[in-house]
Amino acid sequence: MAIWLTLCGAIVVIAYLLGSFPTGYIAVKQLKGIDIRQVGSGSTGATNVLRILGKGPGAFVLVLDALKGVLAIALVYWLFNFNQIQNYIPPTVDVQVWQPWLITIAGLAAILGHSKSIFLGFTGGKSVAISLGILLAISWQVGLATAGVFAIVMAISRIVSLSSIAGAIAVSIFMVILHQPLPYILFGIAGGLYVILRHRPNIGRLRAGTEPKIGQNVATPEQTT
């Protein structure tokens, strides 16, 4: 049992490190030679990269950040399906019960890593893109439905933060509607609340009517928002 718990713990740590990989920071540093945390919104995510470098790099960072989430969940599936590791699964462990919980924990670790990167002094982005990747890996139906909500709100409002918050609220609803396991429903609730909390400054600007629409510049840099 000790070996199995160690393997599960290692997967969670690796998921956090995957989430921590600072894609946006590296892209802006390499292409423009500046620290992305000191410009725009201060976030290392794809939206701020879009503001600084344009659509191509922004889309590239978006995809890579989503892939970090996919890889974090893929590691859990690998752990439960790799033949040599199966020998270390204790007979008392019900894989059907254990796997969704480990996926949930690894997913939350990856989200935390993206926003609190160990490589950037525990700063980062808002964990929207990586959350989408995790959702697609957990349940592509929930992932696509959540992305659809984001796209609809984005088309109407042209405000990324509002669209992200709408998606964060919708994910829990879709988890329930599509009859996902309890751990995934809890992931939707916890992950969604965390994404919303990461948008607290944006919520303040939304209430004040000063939140910029896509294509507009952020007036005041805000660290790790």
Give the ordered list of helices and strands: HHHHHHHHHHH
Distance between the termini: 41 Å
Radius of gyration: 18 Å
Describe the oligomeric state of these chains in a short phrase.
single chain
Describe the 3D structure.
The N and C termini lie far apart (41 Å). The chain is 72% helix and 0% strand. The protein contains eleven helices and no strands.
Tags for this model:
11 helices; 72% helix; 225 residues
Chain-wise SSE layout:
Elements (H helix, E strand, L loop, with lengths): L1 H19 L2 H10 L13 H8 L1 H27 L1 H4 L8 H21 L12 H11 L1 H18 L2 H18 L4 H17 L1 H9 L17
Helix pairs in contact: 1-4, 1-6, 2-3, 3-4, 4-6, 4-7, 6-7, 6-10, 7-8, 8-9, 9-10
Please summarize what this structure is.
This protein has about 220 residues and is mainly alpha-helical. The protein contains 11 helices and no strands.
